[in-house]
Amino acid sequence: MSTAPMPEFPTGFRWGVSTSAYQIEGAADTDGRGPSIWDTFAHTPGRIIDGSSGDVACDHYHRYAEDVALMAGLGVSAYRFSIAWPRVLPSGTGQVNPAGLDFYERLVDELLAHGIDPVATLFHWDLPQPLEDAGGWLNRDTAHRFAEYADVVATRLGDRVRLWITLNESFIHMSLGHATGVHAPGRMLLFDAFPVAHHQLLGHGLAVAALRARSTSPVAIANNYSPVRVVGGSQADAAAGAAYDALHNQLFTDPLLGRGYPAELDFDTAAVRDGDLDVIAAPIDVLGVNYYNPTAVRAPEEGSPLPFELVPLTGYPRTAFDWPVVPEGLRELLGWLRDRYGRALPPIQVTESGCAYDDAPDADGQVPDADRIAYLDGHLRAVRAAIDDGVDVTGYFVWSLLDNWEWAEGFTKRFGLVHVDFRTGQRTPKSSYAWLREVIATARRAPR
Question: Binding positions for substrate (predicted)?
């Protein structure tokens, strides 16, 4: 961690924390909520490393007021949360569940009462199971059902949500959920998963129109990005790097900003119909950037079904997830977005940035996490450097407020600024919470 003072951030810079519904809410059988693909996946033996599920998670559904008080104590100006589609529309379509909407209304009103902007993500991977049974994101109809859901939520909350995010990390949901089967719904389609990409993007475009019809708040999407580091000096290695870059970093951004699908990707585009790309390219107000680490790539072995091979990126500290800690990669990424998309690029907010470490209370009940402090310090400095480079970055959200249920890793990875005892639900702010509170307070005190 640098010993130099944290540089100043622009006036109005949005300081936030992020979570997602299935990872923290619990209350799986409460208020008429229907099943999601993650309920099904988590209850399938062998899918989750510790055999756990999100049935209770952090019990945020019942403890949301306590969690909002933690945000207020931290001093954040925004909270990025996700709305559980099956809590609002248990079948994914048709009959609305008013009790589910009531919960999100209580949460939004509690945030506003504490001066915190509600930033609502409509889809953070928890597709209603009945829609999956009908084909899920492989089925074009799901895009239209997503727009219907967006309309329902915006009708109730459109006057109070301050920023809408349609989809979270569509690349990750496609690749881990539908290409390799590591995440729900567990499909293993490899490159035949392209319709999942297209239908998510189509659903985004349709949802943008639905949100704008019901709300005057800005609209965004949150994409996962990973700068590519080519390992090896051959033409085949370079080609592998280009292919992975197109897949991970361009596939879900080029169409959004009017460039169509990357020519480098050899997909069967039968799912794309006339007019779809115009719907997908509906103007957005903010691009959400989720960044964790770069990806090292080299040419694959002969006979591989993929045009690249992912290899460890060495020479950096590593998190408990064994991810390399590379703050300069965030500055590199933000500059790449500026250079590639130019005037088509809207303002950026870093909607996820964080790290997992094996945090535990000490003998005094404190939770020291110096590694997380160093991580956040480096990444915030990278954002400030990107702003100095001319990139329009207007916010930074830490992943995550709470230790949570970490998908296929269950309860084995802790990302939170706040430690959660998963047996009792007790919340204990870590040392990183106190550090960030002072960073935010100092930023607000700085002369302008």
Answer: 23, 124, 168, 292, 399, 406-407
